[in-house]
């Protein structure tokens, strides 16, 4: 990697050039640590152990470990994103972070966890990476605050949506029908 493409399409030299092998930190760590999965490296293991405790669900290498892997991967991405001033929102990069938080919460919910907890994982991400990624270290409490707010907002939305859905199902059954109107489906969406 040698150049930065400017807005006028010209190229300018980067302060430092290097070779991008595409291997990534976790793949290199897996190779150096002699493990077969990125999630078995020290980059993830501490976080996965905390997730085990939060979910009261043991991590497994097979499908039983999917929630742990998804949550650990997503919360790291969210922490790095917020540390770089991307705030969860309804558009652009912010929407990506919002979707990652919601997807992590969905996996947690499927594992029986229905209260905010992702924000507690931020300190673990900081402990693992803060010494090398100063933005995470400097903004750790702020990142956790943003994540906690997103979690609370989403869980409140899901709760009210489920209440509305259950009411609609009861109304449909009472009317001896078996379909939800498009208008109601849109409102639920």
Low-confidence runs: none
Average pLDDT number: 93
What structural category characterises the helix and strand content? mainly alpha
The biggest beta sheet, please? 2 strands, antiparallel
Distance between the termini: 43 Å
| Sequence of secondary-structure elements | EEHHHHHHH
Strand order of the largest sheet: 1-2
Report the oligomer: single chain
Strand content: under 5%
How many β-strand runs? 2
What characteristic shape results from the CA principal axes? Answer: globular
The helix content is 55-70%
Rounded to an integer, what's the Rg over CA atoms? Answer: 21 Å
Q: Total helix count?
A: 7
List its salient traits.
two-stranded antiparallel ribbon; 189 residues
Please explain how this structure is put together.
With 189 residues, this protein is mainly α. It has helices at 24-33, 45-55, 66-83, 92-110, 118-129, 134-174, 182-188, and strands at 3-5, 11-13. The N and C termini lie far apart (43 Å). The model has no long low-confidence stretch (mean pLDDT 93).
Task: Provide a concise account of the structure shown.
This protein has 189 residues and is mainly alpha-helical. Helices cover 62% and strands 3% of the residues.
